[in-house]
Amino acid sequence: MAFVVEVRHLKKYFEHDDVRAIDGVDIRTTGGEYLVLLGPSGCGKTTLLRTIAGLEDPTEGEVLIAGNVVNGLPPRARQVAMVFQSYALYPQKTVLGNIEFPLKAERIEKAERRRKAAWAAELLGIDHLLGRKPRQLSGGERQRVALARALVREPAVFLLDEPLSNLDAKLRTSARDELKQFQQRLRTTTIYVTHDQAEAMGLGDRIAVMQSGKIRQLGPPVEVYLDPADTFVATFLGSPPMNMIPRNAHLLGFRPEQFLPSDLVAGGDSRMTVRFEVRRIEHLSGDRHVYGEIPELGEGTRIIARLPATVTIPIEADGTYEFAVHERDLRFFDAETGLKTDPKPVRV
User: What is the domain range of residue 293?
Assistant: First the structure.
């Protein structure tokens, strides 16, 4: 049965350098959920994962697994398995030796260890590698060994700390798909740490965006992307990030892919139309990133449009064009707090 993980009012301070790594976090997973902790380096996401695992003691607050407070329990007693960024494989042991190591530490009989190790290796497609050493494996194979080693313990919760960061871009994409399918088959509650928004959007049932030890927003990936709770989430998610326009005491935001030549944006009065002075164009894969300014805003306010390859309207640097965005796609934020506010009348 899939377990629920909950943290209540969790805080973790490192007194030696006066750092609040976790600063009042409340999260509750659902059973079998794939929850992704997303944020920049140093935001506290790995410390939060390690505290759930029992590798760090909280300064304040509680960690609950399956409704039971586990503060003070060692990692082995929490029914969790953690896969680290480095994979932490034993170089002198074979793949089989690495996979069955946690079972050996629990004094499980050899025949049962081998049976479980063979089952996990077959599930992850590495049963033909059992006799090799880690140095003889590719990055993707080492990652599977680390997952198999976690799996043999049949944990109630998987905790994954940037397990794909050491893979090249092509392998990372395929490994991401494999991880998602693997978790869906097992339906084990999984908490996954990453700073890569593509991983977060592709893997998570929900995303918790973190900054400075706090959760800025928690929700389904599409909701977090399209309806960010504040300017940090709006500009951290997205490549390119959300455009921000200052308007008195508010900020007006819209995604680059929603900002298009006006002929492509139907709606008449229900859209914001502006003159867009193009400064530079980047051709990236199937997209064009068009950088420019809106003259009415004055110099220095950079605006980006992301045009898919299907948009064949000719656009050149140093030209001025009429662009538009649907009013339903506009987001408003308080200029002082950065928090999302109610929609405002639009005039640029």
Answer: 247-334
